[in-house]
Design brief:
Helices cover 30% and strands 20% of the residues.
Amino acid sequence: MILNVSGRTDIVAFYSEWFINRYKEGFVDVRNPFNKKLVSRIYFEDVDAILFCTKNPAPILDFLKEIKKPIIFQVTLTPYKNDIETNVPDKKEIIKTIKKLSEIVGIDHLFIRYDPIFLSEKYNIKYHIKAFDKLCNLLDGYVENFIISFLDNYKNVRKNAHIIQYREFNEEDFRSIGESFSKSAKSHNMTVQTCFEERNLVEYGFQKGECLSHEMAFRLTGKTYKNWTARKCKCVEMVDIGTYNSCSHFCRYCYANFDENEVENNRKKHDKNSSLLIGTIEKDDVIKIRKK
């Protein structure tokens, strides 16, 4: 089993101490988002590898030496300001942390997600081209792989449309991004790819790949896995241990947060000593052990 920590919330940024407590305890409980009384119990002895997804790796750096499992990091780093990414720390500090992280886990185990790209009057094509090229310069020697995606029409995106003020992409936009990003990445011996996008930009030099490929998973664990059917892509199957509406970054485009009041309520229910990320086990919960 490969743990995804986490696509539903930023556990690393806000709940690292809880995660390490669960790792030391030997198991973690995950409430089913579609059946609240059903809880999956995962024992870390059944975990083959861990994929950490975060916008801020800093809180977990000092704990990583305690984790005796193969680790991959995907760090989302975009050029948006706090009008879009309300509570994300200063990007200069994130870049410093990424460099430290690279030295800890190794350049082959670190991916940067420039994700999602949207276009507006403020965040236009020229802005993105300049920002991506700057990132390549700053991360040269610490990062080799970028993953990009384009904005999807999630509920939260529609709710915040008046703030994001995005426009649709056209073919000239895709060409400009494809050619420019590929050129910047190549000049620093980096690769750039999409994952499960209609426009994969391979004609402009992007690589065709997955966020977590079967090849990478096999190199990490020596095991083979099914495709991740929950996402209908060709990534390997993973188990997410997060909870929706529990991330305080409050990014305007987020698919996992769609109710800021619920986020605040959930944060209040968090107990670093609980087996669940949010709340505690209740008497009528049905706990089932998950092996894969």
